[in-house]
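== Fold encoding ==
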Amino acid sequence: YKFYCQKTLDNAHSAAADITATYEILEAQIEKYDELHGSVAVLSEFSQGKNPAADFAYRIVYNEKREEIFNFGKHKGKRVCDIFTAEPGYYSWIMNGEFPLYTKKVVTRIYQKMQQDKRSV
């Protein structure tokens, strides 16, 4: 907040102060960085980075072939389906771990599709 707005954040972590600061920082960043000028679509594309997210927490992202890959831990950069095939317990580890519910939903969708694909062969 200080860097972008040259202000001190009073009442940090109160909803009103945090929302106001977030908005002011975004406005300052749009002014500072030319690549952010344009529209909400430009900001959305920029914020997704190199690999768009499959889940809200960016635990699973898409590679250049639009395949789901892990974006954390020892399997970062590896295809989810490859890891679930090589290490079937990894799915259970995620489902029993402290991951966001939406991440678990995405992982479950991938796992169920793999199971369905196995049955169709």
User: Anything to note?
Assistant: The mean pLDDT is 92. The chain has six helices and two strands.
